Structure prediction request, 115 residues.
Amino acid sequence: MKVIKIGIAPQAKIRERMLAIAKGELKPKSTDPKIWFTSMRSLSQVLSDENRALLEVIRTARPASISELADMTGRKQSNLSRTLKTMSRYGLVTMEKHERYLRPIANAERYLISA
Prediction:
């Protein structure tokens, strides 16, 4: 079962950490979060109840395209595209190109949040 670790920290701390990693001053541990949010509020917007349900549909039904996912969930395709773009930016989903379609793939089954 794939678990994505999510961290919450102020923007300045996230930036400081990234710079230390880039300079070689800090080697991230395998147990460190891979995705960072600046607040619980921003995390809750991306992983809302509705979006977690969407991730579950993606994970279990494995839709072949965004339009197929729209049919499965009853959500508008334009709304889904925006949501999936945001989730993709955070690494929660991968958008895989197949012919003329983008196929959403959930990158985890569970999420572990640490502050």
Residues 3-114 form a domain with the Arc Repressor Mutant, subunit A fold (CATH 1.10.10.10).
